[in-house]
Amino acid sequence: MNQASAQGESEGLANLAIDPDVLARELAAELDVDPLEAIDLEGGDSDASQISRECDAGLEWLKQGHEERLQGLRVFCEHRDSRALPLLLPLLNEPCPVERMSAVYALGRNPCPSALELLLNLLRTDSNAYVRKAAAWSLGNYPDASVIDPLIHALQNDVSAVRLWASGSLADVGATSCDKADLAATQLLVSLKIDTETVVRSNCIWALGRLYSKLNQSRKDELVEAFIDVLLNDSQDSVREEARISLEQLDEAKVFEKLQELIDEGLLV
């Protein structure tokens, strides 16, 4: 690559947006396909080379001042590279909440066992809701059993944005074993009934749907009953629609029969 091309690429990376609201919206959403998996599927050497160059630049930025660190953090919120881990961990203690938040997201994209306790502490104690929200999301990539109770506590007690991502991460962690699935489902079912925020209730439904296959039969029956109750009684159309979609996605004959009964009785259309 010639010098002009290298300079142009560096300037392009340096101009990446670092607005905290934008960063939170873009990075807190769990991706259906990991970017690195997409590269493998596409088999593009040029893509792999570009990511390698971006990571090399990101590593250098992480060693510099505040503005450069933010650019480096943005790189590792998007890409995985184990070389970044020693540089990311200290940034969890930065006084700037944007740096802390970005470092938390980066350590969600680049899970590191040494980061687990630090992330749990941020979820429990950080004064900035953006940072706690980032921690709630990132901990979904740490399937250790120790994250279940802190995520449950966040779902019970934190602000709505944190509760939203805590519910999603409980699905991610709970899906790794039947025992964890049951623990996660217990609180998700409670929050589905009592949470005042529409988006949190909807996400609880989505999370419970993901855990369904890991639950025992009695818990599955409880989940179906809870979804039907929401379908009939929740005050918000979007939550009722989420419940109906999730029931249909369970793909079980008895569930379809129950839905048909409700239609025949005029309770559903």
Strand content: under 5%
Regions with little confidence, pLDDT below 50 for 5+ residues:
1-22, 26-46
Mean pLDDT metric: 84
Output the structural class.
mainly alpha
- C-alpha geometry: elongated
Major pleated sheet: none
Total of DSSP H or I helical runs spanning 4+ residues? 16
Any chance you could write out the topology, listing elements then pairs?
Blueprint lengths: L2 H12 L5 H9 L6 H8 L2 H18 L3 H13 L6 H4 L8 H13 L6 H10 L3 H10 L9 H10 L2 H15 L3 H17 L3 H14 L5 H17 L3 H13 L3 H12 L5
Helix pairs in contact: 2-7, 4-5, 5-7, 7-9, 8-9, 9-11, 10-11, 10-12, 11-12, 11-13, 12-13, 12-14, 13-15, 14-15
Structure report:
This protein is mainly alpha-helical. The chain folds into 2 domains: 1-142, no CATH class; 147-269, Alpha Horseshoe (Leucine-rich Repeat Variant), CATH 1.25.10. Helices cover 72% and strands 0% of the residues. Helix 7 (97-109) packs parallel to helix 9 (129-138), helix 8 runs antiparallel to helix 9 (129-138) and helix 9 (129-138) runs parallel beside helix 11 (160-174). The radius of gyration is 21 Å and the shape is elongated. It starts with a helix and ends in a 5-residue tail after the last helix.
